[in-house]
Every structure is written in structure tokens, then in C-alpha cells.
Amino acid sequence: MLILMTFTPYQEITMAHELDRRSDSTAATFSTRITPWHREGTILKHAPSLEEALDLGGLDFEVDVRPLYTRIHSAPDVSDFTYERAGDAFATVRTDRDAVLGIVSSRYQPLQNRDAFGVLEPLLDAGLASLETGGSLRGGRDVWMLVRFNVDSPIVQEVFADEVVPFGMISNNHAGQRKVVVQETPIRVVCANTLGAALRDRRRAVGVRHTASVEARTVEAARSLWKGLVERYDRVAQQYRALKQYHLDTALFRQLVLDVAAPIPAKLDKVGLTAREEAARQRVVARRSRMGELWGGGAGHSGDGSAWEAYNAVAQSVDHDAALWKVRDSRVGALLDGRLLELKDRVLNKLVASAEAASE
């Protein structure tokens, strides 16, 4: 079975961070080995234990759900008032500060930080992952913890080195605004903006509602999502290496790339086209021409004619040549989980299948 994955190089986003503060006024975040761009929080030489991470990330607090009341004035003396329950409204409260984080209904079930991030403990104990970053944002409304998976397969190290790093993240919102999210991401989360960037990539993410059994369902989401991750990266590395070693001639490039990504419809491949049909044909021809240019001269390409550079020619054009690849709805959505992502995956599928067949 082919494993189709699109990787983003390891990255951090450099914008405002919205980090919470611990009781000693230090930023409520930690980072292992690497100093974040904002240079705040605690920088560690070695990965911490879960208990240390909860402390350094400002995550050692609990959240309570308390009923809300409305103050009712009794006329004519406005100083005389009573309190009445405000329907089905409840407040999530950070108990160490008595700070209201959000407004929720009676169905909301909080997931405490210790329970959410305790899901990671079996991975840490088994040596399959190590804690990388963690912290608290916006007064504790949003919290996260990130692990770096220890993929020590020789082929993964040979093909990817540190360019593609598999991270696992659990993020939680205590304000009733978002689900608990368990996901795999290539983005090293260190602040509000990197958290937002990671959350926008939902191709390998599971959201869990804050309702009954939220903890058990978070555990199951992590088990299901990360099961076999090390083996999957090993398989993907084999496929990517095969692409780099598989070289195409012009005919194969046309067959495996151009005719898959931008086929010329039969109704447009004839003489006597109308003006509208001719314009449509020229759009397809422009796409094919652009991908041909990028195959030999795209960013980072050596012009070796490999299937790897052929795939990247498609990815670079689809991602950056917006005028050539117009979509009716959101272009971002089409790139993340829609038609444009499917187009790139079809090309990758064809190239991997051909490369593997040639190596047999």
C-alpha cells in the first residue's frame, strides 16, 4: 500500500506569542535544546520529565466548572438586589487564580492538564518520544505539550535528517472555544502563532469534544493516531529515497506528471476550437509548461531529472502559481485538504508506484 504524505520542513513562526506568566513572572513555557525566537521561558539541555514539564510550562493548575448567576435589582431601591441562576450557563475557572477562562454549558466536561498530558507518559516511558515544548497561553485558556518522536531508523535519518521531524501534540482549550486536539505535526510549537499554524493542519489530527468521557476518548485518539508512526516514517523514507533515485525521461514525465496533474481533455485536443475552448486549452498548456520549467529549474532543484524533483515541480506550481490553479472556494482549504492536495497526491501516487516497479 502506498503511503501518501506531504511534509513541511521543520519551522517556527515568528510573531506575537501571548504566553502566560508563572508565579515567578517567567514565561509559562519550556523548550528543549532550541531557544525559541522570543527567547522567553525555560530552555533545557535535556528533555524534562512530565512533572517537570507541567511546572516549567505553567501547566500545574486545575480548572473548575461553576454555575453563573445574574444579579437582579429590586425596584425602586436599586441597591437592593438578589441573584438568580443564569439558565444553563457555567464558567470555567482557573482555580489557582480564581480567574474566569470562558463560558460553557452544563454539557462541558473539563479535561485537566495533568490528565490531558498524561496521555503522553507511556510514549515517554517507552523511549518512543521525548518532551520538546509546552506551555500556557492567554492566561491558561490554551495549553499545549509537544513531543518529538524518536525515529532512529537509519533510512529515515539518511533521507530526512532533521528536515522532516515528526512531532506529536496535545492541545487543550479551557474556555469552551475549541476541542481537545491530538495531532501529528511537522511544526515545532512554541507560542500562540505556531500553535495556530499547527492547528490549521488537520490532515493528521483528531478533535475530542469536552463532554462525558473526554479523557478516555483523548487516550484512544492518541493511540489510534500515533500507532505505527515509526514504521510509517520508515516506509515513507523508503518511498522518498526511491523517488530520488528514479530518473525520468521526457516521455515518462509527460505520462506520470503532466497527464496526471494537467491532462488535455480530448474535446480540447483537436482543430477548430471555439475562442472559449482555445482559452481553456491554453490554461492547461500553461500549467504543463510551468511544471516542465520547474522540473529542471525549481527552487532547490539540481536538474537531475529525478521523480523527486518532478513531484516537487508539481507541488511548487500548485502551491505558488495561484493564477494557474484557480479554485472556486478557499485556496487555502484546497491546498490543505481539498482538490489541490488531492491533485498532488495523485501525482505522488503515480511516481511512487512507477519508481517501486522499476526497482523490482
Describe this structure in words.
This protein is an alpha+beta fold and 360 residues long. It folds into 2 domains: 7-227, no CATH class; 246-359, no CATH class. It has helices at 50-56, 113-118, 121-125, 154-160, 192-200, 214-226, 229-245, 250-261, 275-297, 307-320, 331-337, 339-359; strands at residues 29-32, 42-44, 63-73, 81-94, 99-104, 129-137, 142-149, 167-173, 180-185, 205-208. Strands 2-1-6-7-8-9-10 form a 7-stranded mixed β-sheet, sandwiched between helices. Strands 3-4-5 form a 3-stranded antiparallel β-sheet, with no helix packed on it. Helix 9 packs across helix 10 (307-320) and helix 10 packs antiparallel against helix 12 (339-359). It starts with 28 loop residues before the first strand and ends with a helix.
Using brief descriptors, characterize the structure shown.
three-stranded antiparallel beta sheet, disordered N terminus, alpha+beta, seven-stranded mixed beta sheet, 2 domains, single chain, 360 residues, 39% helix
